[in-house]
Structures are given as C-alpha cells and as structure tokens.
Amino acid sequence: MGRPNVGKSTLFNRIIGKRQAIVLDTPGVTRDRNYGVADWNGKKFNIIDTGGMNFQKGDFNSEINSQVESALADADLIIFLTDSKSGITDLDAQIGKLLRPRKKDVILAVNKADNDMYRLNAYDFYNLGLGDPIAISANHGTGVGDLLDLVTKKLPDQEDPSENDHDQINVSIIGEPNVGKSSLVNRLIGDERLIVSSEAGTTRDAISLDLKTEDGEKFKLIDTAGIRRSGKVQEAVEKFSVIRAKNAVEDSDVSLVLIDAKAGIREQDKRVAGIAFESGRSIIIVVNKWDLIEKDDHTMKEFEQYVRDEFPYLSFAPIVFISAQTGLRVSSILPLVSEVYANSIKRIPSAVLNDVLFDAISMTPPAAHKGKILKLFYLTQVEVKPPLFIVFVNDLKLFHFSYERYLINYLRKVFDFTGVPVKIKARERS
Ligand code: GDP
Ligand code: GDP
C-alpha cells in the first residue's frame, strides 16, 4: 500500500508478471483492489494492490484510515511503498504512523530509485520509524528481487493458495458500467470493501474476492470493469477492460451476466453476453434494479421473454430478477451458482447415456434423407465444464443440425443442465 502514484500498480505488475493492474499517469486509476497470486522461487503468496485513495472526495483521512485498516486486517505482510523522488510526504507520514503498531509485518520500500542519487535518498525514509528502507525501481526491476526475498522470508509457511482452489467456485460478474456489479458484489460479501459510485466505471480493474458462506461453501467473485462506449481519455482503460472481462470470464466457472432492468438490453449488453457465451462457461443472467420497474403479475414473464428474444443463444441460462440495492432475491444467487456449477461438472455414465439415446431415437427416429438413414450407435460424455458428448454415427453427412439440437434438448430434459452449454460432436464409426 501507499499513496497514489508511488508505483503500486507498476510493482504489482512486475511481481505478478502479467499486466493485471492498469498503469496510467492519472493518480487514482487503480481505485479498487487488485488481487493476484505471486510466485517467488517456488513460494506462492497472494498479493493485493490496495489501489489509490480517491482524493477528489475531500475527506481522505477517513479513506486512508479504512484502507490501512482493511490492509492490516487482511494481510500477513504489508509492503509500504514510497517514492524516492518526492521524499517523505505528509501522507506518507500519516500512513506510516498508522502502520507503526504492526511494524514487524511492514516492509518499507522506496520506489523510483532508478539511479544512485535516488537510492541514497532512500535513507531519509528511516525517519518513518519502520526500519530499514529497501530501495527499488519497479520500472527497471532493481531491488525487487531483494524485496521479494524479504517477503518470502517474513511470510508464515502456508499451503499453496492455488491448491485449495478445487473446492471453490469461481464466479465472474460482468456487465456494462452502471448495471450494478459493484453493488451486487457488496451485497454478496456484506461489507463495504468495494467503492460503489453512481458514476460509470468506478471499478476499472477486475478484482477478486474470496467468499465463504455459512455452510462453508467457497466462492471467488471476480468483478470486472464494464465495457465502455465513449470517452477518449478512457480508451486505454477500455482496451484493458475488454481483455479483463474476457480474462475474468476465462478464469471463472460460472459467469453472471448483469442487465439493467430499467435501461433494458442494449448493443453493449449483447457484446458482454457474447464474451460469456463464446467462452463456453456456465451462465446466469441477472436482471438487476428490479426495484425500479413498475410491476404487475405479467411483468416478470414478459421481461423473461424479452431477454430470451434478445439473447437467443443463451436459452440455457437461468434468469434471476434482483435488486442489488434493496437486496431482493440476492440471496438466491449463490445457491443458483452452486447448482449450475454442479450441473457443469456432472459426468453421466455411458450405460445411462445409451439408454437415453435409445429412448430419444425411439421417440423421434431420424428421417430418411435421399434414401439413406442416419444410424446412431453410441453416446458418450468425454468432457465436463462444459459437458461435451460424442455420438458415433454411420455417416457424418446425415447428422444434421436439427437432430443434434433434438438430442441436446433431450439430454437437457433428462439431466438437469440448467445454466450449462451442452455440446455434441459426431464421429463416424467405421
Ligand atoms: P500507483 O498509483 O501507486 O499504483 O502508481 P503507478 O504504478 O500507477 O505509477 C505511477 C507513475 O509512476 C507511473 O507513471 C509509473 O510509470 C511511474 N513509476 C512507477 N515505478 C517507477 C519507477 O521505478 N521509476 C520511475 N521513474 N517511475 C516509476
Ligand atoms: P457497476 O458500474 O456495474 O459496478 O455499477 P454500480 O454498482 O456502481 O451501480 C451503479 C449505480 O446503480 C449506482 O448508483 C447504484 O446505487 C445503482 N444501483 C445498483 N444496483 C441497483 C438496484 O438494484 N436498484 C437501484 N435502484 N439502483 C441500483
């Protein structure tokens, strides 16, 4: 952590080794937190970029206090980053003071020590009372190795953070700016860790949060920046946002596609949904701001039809109508995510599948085509997440799309694949 513009994002990127945080010359671009897994000489640890504090909003004292407080609460170790070029500022002194009670868990790093002169400046930082300052250059990488050596030395021995991922469901939350992603995440985690704002795009970075329900179920929420429409200044941010939305979806098991009930479905929403669809991930469509809609007993059905018409390729995705603001039905989301996830990892034994195939063929036998008739011999599931089935047939040319769709729908009727895209590929049996 550290005040804006000292180089936190740059350092985060250097440690993580991929461009996760957005680095721009505008202070405060990394507003929310950025999480990543770092690996230094085989020792893995989670690293959090606390982001800049928002200075426009006046009362930054309380902002700083709460940032420091949550860093202290969440972290085993804190890298307090400062800037050798500017020397100790009032803000550094203030943060330093707040960190002093946890001095043993604080590593003081002085960034932008790009040359000998600036490296010497680092000694001034002894005055913060946080022990030996380490001079680094996040830009050039100088000193970052020493810093990481110290980090891994100080960290308690822990199991690999990625190892216990198997029982955790990764959920990406995507949608246009302002549909209510941050509000939903806030509702779900039940605290105020994200900054929710009425201006579009407060959450510019994808951030992820681990969540454990009372019954011990674990989720990782990946909240993405929306995909922006306009604004020259934001172009660089936008480019990353699209990539990040894609990455977030790729990193997730289940994707929540958020729609604003009041604004309706726009071109941009379709683009967002397209990203989720193309990834082959499980999908839940979340219609947010349902509190703003004037309703009678037909409204939900009508809206559902509207969503189905606009997203014909997402017919497998369940739709939930919520209000992140009032909390309406928000509690139904995680149980639905679990259910959809369970559907996506379902493996159906071949013996059962072949009974089902037999039934399907008996119900609707393939039609003859130019005197030839399709024969289906065997159906087997070869993949999960998403489920992929292979059907062996006598002649690939006879396996038309309509019969493929019929089989998929039949499988969906027999086995619950709600929320999950299902694919069948045909192979010719010689
Ligand atoms: P943050 O607000 O603390 O996350 O800071 P950023 O990582 O966005 O960096 C702010 C500015 O400092 C950017 O222009 C960076 O390129 C620059 N910067 C970061 N690290 C270094 C460094 O080691 N040396 C120099 N000279 N500039 C740096
Ligand atoms: P994001 O850009 O997708 O993260 O959207 P935000 O969570 O920042 O929400 C954008 C705006 O919509 C904020 O002013 C929220 O208070 C408001 N908002 C979010 N969810 C709801 C909701 O369910 N109902 C109403 N009425 N407003 C909402």
UniProtKB/TrEMBL annotation:
Positions that bind GTP 2: 175-182, 223-227, 288-291
Annotated ranges, domain EngA-type G: 1-159, 169-345
UniProt entry keywords in alphabetical sequence: GTP-binding, Nucleotide-binding, Repeat, Ribosome biogenesis
Keyword Transmembrane: no
UniProt GO molecular function: GTP binding; ribosome binding
CDD domains referenced in this protein's UniProt entry, alphabetically: EngA1, EngA2
Coiled-coil ranges from the UniProt annotation: none
Residues binding GTP 1, per UniProt: 2-9, 49-53, 111-114
GO biological processes: ribosome biogenesis
Quaternary context: Associates with the 50S ribosomal subunit.
Function in brief: GTPase that plays an essential role in the late steps of ribosome biogenesis.
Family classification: Belongs to the TRAFAC class TrmE-Era-EngA-EngB-Septin-like GTPase superfamily. EngA (Der) GTPase family.
Listed name of the protein: GTPase Der
Natural source organism: Xylocopilactobacillus apicola
Taxon lineage: Bacteria, Bacillati, Bacillota, Bacilli, Lactobacillales
